[in-house]
UniProtKB/TrEMBL annotation:
Sequence ranges assigned to domain Cryptic POLO box 1 (CPB1) in this UniProt record: 50-163
A Pfam family annotated for this UniProt entry: Plk4_PB2
Official protein name in the record: Uncharacterized protein
Limits of the Cryptic POLO box 2 (CPB2) domain: 164-269
Coiled coil: none
Length: 269
């Protein structure tokens, strides 16, 4: 059953990619945009280090439009590559946008918009009125109070990159995808027996479609005794493919002629 399901998914690029994306999200979204980890780290810095801290510029090159809602915050990447964070709150009349942050594709220009409800002293007025304040900054001049928004936007962009294939390689037994993120690069190998190898940096998991669970893989070669012979062979094969695709990535990343995702081989399922 698992083999048939895997073959069905591998017949279609879109379905297979979506399936892998969902599995990667299960691994990555535990804290990537739901908490302000960067803010906590900044608070632990001594005063001088905190003053010197500057967020690194993000970029959304080659990323497709998408959106994700986490609590009262909506994250978006638009057609033009702009990143938007929209904070809102629920009202009787619907959803009220309270503030938004818009970041340019190269991460160097930030527009902060704040919406405030104007107090009404006339009780006959049903529809509330709002004041809107908008200001644009460069990244260099961004106020520290807005760093937390920029950090959350960066985490969201990294999540999208970690689920966007940059290089796809087909072999007789698997489909391999190296993702767009450069830090702790994500790599996925989907095998035709229903198992999936997922790597993020040095962390490796094997996903089984029947049990629908992730099994952490030992970082040394003790996985040979951790799994059965067939699964151990698949892990070894995926690890070798990961190394070759990382080398290929270095060679093609600076090539402006290549259209990404770069696809090598063809489907045989």
């Amino acid at each position: 059953m698992a083999r048939e399901e895997s073959q069905r998914l591998l017949r279609t690029n879109t379905l297979d990619t979506k399936n892998c994306v969902q599995m990667i999200k299960k691994l990555l979204t535990r804290s990537i945009i739901t908490s302000d980890n960067a803010g906590i780290e900044r608070n632990n810095l001594v005063s001088e280090e905190r003053i010197r801290y500057k967020p690194l510029p993000l970029n959304t090159y080659r990323l497709k439009p998408c959106s994700e809602r986490v609590g009262n915050t909506r994250f978006l990447i638009t057609e033009s590559g702009t990143v938007r964070l929209e904070n809102s709150k629920s009202r009787n009349s619907g959803i009220l946008l309270t503030e938004s942050v818009e970041i340019s594709q190269n991460g160097m220009q930030i527009t902060y918009t704040q919406c405030r409800e104007i107090p009404q002293y006339n009780t006959d007025i049903i529809e509330p009125e709002y004041s809107v304040r908008r200001k644009t900054y460069t990244l260099e001049a961004l106020p520290q109070k807005l760093y937390k928004y920029y950090d959350r936007a960066t985490k969201f962009v990294e999540l999208v990159k970690a689920t966007t294939p940059k290089i796809i390689v087909y072999t007789k037994s698997m489909k391999c995808m190296l993702m767009e993120n450069s830090k702790n690069t994500c790599f996925v190998a989907s095998f035709n027996n229903g198992q999936t190898y997922i790597r993020k940096g040095e962390d490796i998991d094997m996903y089984d479609v029947e049990s629908e669970i992730f099994v952490p893989v030992s970082k040394d070669k003790s996985y040979i005794t951790q799994f059965n012979q067939e699964t151990s062979a698949l892990i070894c094969k995926a690890s070798m493919r990961y190394k070759t695709m990382k080398k290929l990535n270095k060679q093609v990343s600076s090539n402006k002629v290549i259209t990404f995702p770069l696809t090598l081989g063809r489907q045989v399922f």
